[in-house]
Amino acid sequence: MSVQDLEKIFQDKVDADVRIEPKDWMPEKYRQTLIRQISQHAHSEIVGMLPEGNWISRAPSLKRKQILIAKVQDEAGHGLYLYSAAETLGISRDEMVEQLHSGKAKYSSIFNYPTITWADMGAIGWLVDGAAIMNQVPLCRASYGPYSRAMIRVCKEESFHQRQGFESLLVLSKGTAEQKAMVQNAIDRWWWPSIMMFGPHDAESTNTESSMKWKIKRFSNDELRQRFVDMCAEQVKLLNMALPDPDLKWNEERKHYDFGKINWEEFWSVVNGNGPCNKQRLDARKKAWEEGAWVREAAKGYADKRAGRIKHQAAA
Amino acid sequence: MRFEIRKFYYGDIPGENLGRGNADTKAEWPLWEIFIRSKQGLDHKHVGSLHAADAQMAVENARDVYTRRQEGVSIWVVESKHIHASNPDEADSFYEPANDKVYRHPTFYDLPDEVNHM
């Protein structure tokens, strides 16, 4: 069969909403796009544990500490679901780790911002996880089976992350003047990076068109961003806080909120490694990997030795 | 009809696709496929895969990864290299024998409305 025939069979399946499974023929570009996107997402979950890990030992109560630990543990799990999905495309776990550490693979820029106060934990849950969910829910229907299955699992768990974040802010927003100020300050710092999470405007996004055709993506960056802004503009009222955007205004004609210009210079600068915490995050990952090497080797050595002993006993 | 069972060495990936990149993956812990019984009386169902040095670690990691919210009461782990799979390229001919046997389905039989309990 010619490549054109295979491509047609593939596209027909995608058009008919039949999922593509690992052993099915797929265009190389589709495979590469998925590897890039899924591994980026996996890396984001893993690096995303760092800003929150910062507050586990300093959570204001045992309840909040337990919640935060559970959330961070979920993120490790999400990373693992996604790494496994990417591995079905023929890339090994070690290769992906290597790509993260060398800087070849990116992770979400949002995690290159520092978590300065306790309110940042709430703001991350509400805004960062909120934006992530907005992006991730449509991915549950992505054309690649293992990816879609992983995303269904992720989304099921993610909703607690967003709710606990908003609830934590809600409690603070009813507290002292200092606590209120802390909430507003956290929102001020996290709002713009959160809406950058949807990626460049559609006109500048190089990956959108083919990803739409292959049903890896179902909605464009700008569509999802608009939904997120509309949602948050209402939710923030319940906190009695404000989003830091003087241009944010309901547009009766569009039935959407208009919002201000995004600072794309900042976005690209952070993507390219110049955010406040890029180096710190990567260093932490590399250190964890290097210092865990002996554990990986020891476990493997032990397993090999035990397997050898069982074989020996069987032979005797 | 050509009949062939291929062996897949890397989760769902045919062995020949191994080694795309340059990283040394020999040191990696083997890959395991995880099956979970969500409650007594139901089948174990494939939920995903993970790396572990041995079966015991695979079961413990599967508990931490796939049953954090009481999703399971029993876990099976199978090293991925032991999974044999049918070949999707031959799916048409492989499943062809079932295509023309409509009489295997109860709806094939027209019965008068008066027949109850059937």
Show unreliable segments of chain A: none
Strand order of the largest sheet of chain B: 3-2-4
What is the number of E strands of chain A? 2
The description of the largest β-sheet of chain A is: 2 strands, antiparallel
First and last CA, distance of chain A: 53 Å
Mean pLDDT of chain A: 95
**Global morphology of chain B:** elongated
Characterize the largest beta sheet of chain B: strand count, sense, and whether it forms a barrel: 3 strands, antiparallel
Strand content of chain B: 15-25%
Q: What is the oligomer described by this structure?
A: heterodimer
Number of helices of chain A: 13
Order of adjacent strands in the largest pleated sheet of chain A: 1-2
Helix content of chain A: 55-70%
The helix-and-strand class of chain A reads mainly alpha
> Order of SSEs of chain A, N→C?
HHHHHHHHHHEEHHH
Spans of at least 5 consecutive residues with low confidence of chain B: 1-23
- Report the average pLDDT across residues of chain B: 82
**Secondary structure: number of strands of chain B:** 5
Describe this structure in words.
The complex is a heterodimer of chains A (316) and B (118). Chain A is an all-alpha fold and 316 residues long. Helices cover 68% and strands 2% of the residues of chain A. Chain A has helices spanning 3-15, 28-47, 49-56, 62-87, 93-102, 119-136, 145-173, 177-196, 208-213, 221-238, 264-274, 278-291, 293-315, and strands spanning 249-251, 256-258. Chain A has a two-stranded antiparallel ribbon. In chain A, helix 3 (49-56) packs antiparallel against helix 4 (62-87) and helix 6 packs antiparallel against helix 7. The longest helix of chain A has 29 residues, at 145-173. The radius of gyration of chain A is 22 Å and the shape is globular. The relative contact order of chain A is 0.11. Chain B has a three-stranded antiparallel β-sheet with strand order 3-2-4, covered by helices on one side. Chain B has a two-stranded antiparallel ribbon with strand order 1-5. Chain B has helices spanning 55-66, 91-94, and strands at 6-7, 31-37, 44-51, 74-79, 84-85. The radius of gyration of chain B is 21 Å and the shape is elongated. By secondary structure, chain B is of the alpha+beta class. Chain B contains two helices and five strands. At the A-B interface, helix 4, helix 5, helix 7 and helix 13 of A face strand 3 and helix 1 of B.
